[in-house]
Amino acid sequence: MTTGSPARAALIALDWGTSSLRAYRLDGTGRTLDTRHLPWGIMRLPQPLQDGAATNALSGFELAFDQACGDWLRAEPSLPVIACGMVGSAQGWQEAAYLDVPVDLERIGTLLTKVERPGATPVHIVPGLIQRHGLPNVMRGEETQVFGVMFDQSRAPDHHPADSVLIGLPGTHSKWVNARRGRVTHFDTFMTGEVYAALRGHTILGRTMADAPAADMAAFERGVKVAGSPAGRAGVLSTIFSTRALGLTGDLAPASQADYLSGLLIGHEVASLAQMLRQQGEQPRIVLCGEPALCQRYILAMQHYELGTPEQAQNATERGLWHLAVCAGLVNAAGAPSITSSTASA
Amino acid sequence: MTTGSPARAALIALDWGTSSLRAYRLDGTGRTLDTRHLPWGIMRLPQPLQDGAATNALSGFELAFDQACGDWLRAEPSLPVIACGMVGSAQGWQEAAYLDVPVDLERIGTLLTKVERPGATPVHIVPGLIQRHGLPNVMRGEETQVFGVMFDQSRAPDHHPADSVLIGLPGTHSKWVNARRGRVTHFDTFMTGEVYAALRGHTILGRTMADAPAADMAAFERGVKVAGSPAGRAGVLSTIFSTRALGLTGDLAPASQADYLSGLLIGHEVASLAQMLRQQGEQPRIVLCGEPALCQRYILAMQHYELGTPEQAQNATERGLWHLAVCAGLVNAAGAPSITSSTASA
């Protein structure tokens, strides 16, 4: 956690998910002045004091909010606040809409949900996206990262506005988002990260695993390859059992089993993705956005499945929150470039 | 639990897995006289008393064994005892071998591991099977069910010894075992049951599920079909998220979500199996063996994926234990038929 800086700010931006809360203090150009990382995800908020006298006790959301940015707001009370993520879910502070895909990204910024806080600064929550055609799908928070990535793309010197881009957001629930000309056209979800944690923590596969002093990337790559091998055709429900069987035959050390399992799961995800792209006859530009060590695993898998080496986007969440605040008119950014036209990005 | 019967027994047979222990008292023709079901799986044995005076306290295995069949043995001390399952694993009473696949089933009965119990009846543990070609695979306990099923098949009036048969053993870890002429040639494992429990109990998918008064088989069949639909091509890591998304769009009630998820997982398993069989150009006879309600789910999925309606085997474990005891010479069954020849099954 960093302490407040004397520089003037223009926006407070919150990335408020299930398990953590990140707060950004941004200046009038969208530059990050301060960042804070708190453990107050919406599923583990601080507990309000509940003694008899405190009938007006602050809610867990208010307590977390105050720790995240109360001092910033007391120093500059007129700062607007924008937030994205599960804070806008039915279990969040206030439910924000889902916008139907396909959707123009800039439209997202015009449809924020306002949490009124009597006598205090309101919080503007970014809507999620919902895809109703085919098997339905939803996202909350990732739309903001996509916005940040697309904005960045629009500024790239070799940008062609008609290009389609596939944005990969690896994590607990990986999202793969197809976008074109500032418009999200389709997305897929893979529960890879959460399935990995559940298999490791709550099945027999975790029982034979030992902690490793460092990542075993050879075991990871072995898992990636198995996913696409003839034995991999049985699917992930079958291949994961080899984590245990290879241990029993002495072919996979306990300290290597977690990384092998990670390789299997990410391998199956990326192999499916590669097959879908082949069937669609598409080879879009691919941009990855996420935690660097995890992105490195996806890059290895994408190289193995002949998807090339993707670009990597940095700081997409805070950039997305900034530009959504511009779209919403929360901050004054006269002449701010549009993401739908490359000519505006000069 | 039933109490002892005055009828003379010939064998005590134990099916001793990770989470439970079944004990059978069988007569000289292999008929079941008594059955007991105890919660003493090898991972949750009864706790030995540990006071200072009891330095010779019985182990958890001995305590469970005594509860399962101590009175049967006191009534007829010369009865032999055979056991299969995880009791023969490295975490079991005594580690029993794995036999390499391909293997003749009758060979299994000649390679039992003997747990010596000074002054008491020894316990003979059935070996497991291991497959070392391709991705390795193991089983412990299911080899005994396969033995029981194959023995039953050899007695079927339309039996052709050269027929290949695919034996499905749905459960925590589903096994699909290819056998021909009394010989196990190959097997696959799918962790479907354990993955279902982990997803339901330890991921976001369980959070929106509500208990149902009865199984929702329409939701189950919907999941089965999604696994083979165009959206299913993304694989199970992706389709499972639709359990949540369909709930958010109001298209899947909370009380239907668990059965939908069950359908997705079993659907992916059976779809993979059907694809592998097509690639091998095989259409073997299929025999299912397992808990009846679970088998019913697999039958629906197999019908959807055009694998026909499988036969169902009953009491395969106790039948397998009996015939393994015959092979091992633990019981006298002069003229007992062989499973490798149909002429011996008259």
Any overview of this molecule?
Chains A, B: Pfam families: DGOK. Chains A, B: This is 2-dehydro-3-deoxygalactonokinase. The structure is a homodimer of 346-residue chains. Chain A is α/β, with parallel strands linked by helices and 346 residues long. Helices cover 35% and strands 21% of the residues of chain A. Chain A contains eleven helices and 15 strands. In chain A, the strands form three sheets. In chain A, strands 3-2-1-4-8-7 form a six-stranded mixed beta sheet, sandwiched between helices. In chain A, strands 6-13-12-11-14-15 form a six-stranded mixed beta sheet. In chain A, strand 2 (21-26) and strand 3 (32-38) form a beta hairpin. In chain A, helix 4 packs antiparallel against helix 9. The longest helix of chain A has 24 residues, at 257-280. At the A-B interface, strand 13, helix 4, helix 7, helix 8 and helix 9 of A face strand 13, helix 4, helix 7, helix 8 and helix 9 of B.
